[in-house]
Amino acid sequence: MNPCIAAGSTQVMMGRFDMEEFLDLIETHRVTKLFTVPPVGLGLSQYPGVASRDLSCIKFAMFGAAPLSSELQLKISEVLNCPVIQGYGMTESSPVTNIDFTEPDLLKAGSIGPAVSDTEEKIVDVKDPTKELNPGEIGELVIRGPQVMKGYFNNPEATQETITSDGWLHTGDIGKMDEDGYVWILDRKKELIKYKGFQVPPAELEGLLIEHPEISDAAVIGKPDEESGEIPKAFVVKTKGSNISEDAVMSFVSSKVATFKYVREVEFIDAIPKNASGKILRRLLKDQQE
Length: 290
What we know:
By secondary structure, this protein is of the alpha/beta class. It has three domains: 2-82, 3-Layer(aba) Sandwich (Rossmann fold); 120-188, Roll (Luciferase, domain 3), CATH 2.30.38; 192-289, GMP Synthetase, Chain A, domain 3. The chain contains eight helices and 13 strands. It has a four-stranded mixed beta sheet with strand order 1-2-3-4. A four-stranded antiparallel beta sheet has the order 5-6-7-8. Strands 11-12-13 form a three-stranded mixed beta sheet, with helices on both faces. Helix 3 crosses helix 4. The longest helix is centred in the N-terminal third of the chain and has 11 residues, at 19-29. It is globular. The relative contact order is 0.10.
């Protein structure tokens, strides 16, 4: 959004999200660039009223604040009939560090794209941050560049924990990088589910779950378990009229992932708790298990 502001473009903002108002604003103001979050994209992919709207003015849509699965990204692109990309950044990085390309031959679905200009990135081992990992290996994303903050105000201890002496910012996000420097964010480091010594990113399972035609939304947490440490538990919102069972949900996931990533328990709920930017409030779901 910042480049659009710098160019003097009109900004159309919403105080509280409503799908009909959202679509009205796009049609009325002929919005050309859409900046939003994954829950809005999920809604667009499922809302029947979208087909009757003229959204041809949108040239591209950019999603951030939470990971967007490649499947959902492609589905949103089909609905909007325009390129859909992802970006990434943090308050500590002022805020942008990654943006994908809108050109079809450069865009990689599910990725936040490569680092922006003058920015270095690498994936490091979660347990040994001094060890840089190879392309495709999963670890923590660390960043160095001119946009990285000097530190937290009046908090040298937090600064030292977050930024290394040679300027690398620990993002706390788990991801992987390919040979071209494109990055995929899988989840927050602190959100990883520890199942029998394996680390399971809940966002990966959530992305798979919403691919099911009878699931409209989902969240996954680590539920304490005496034998395994934690087990992946899914909270699922059914689509209207669906009679999908717990076993069917678990079978769907198990057909797509390694054994240690299986969903071991399912609970159906009416809505997934999220904050204003669309991030799942897993802490609320975890508190219910205690």
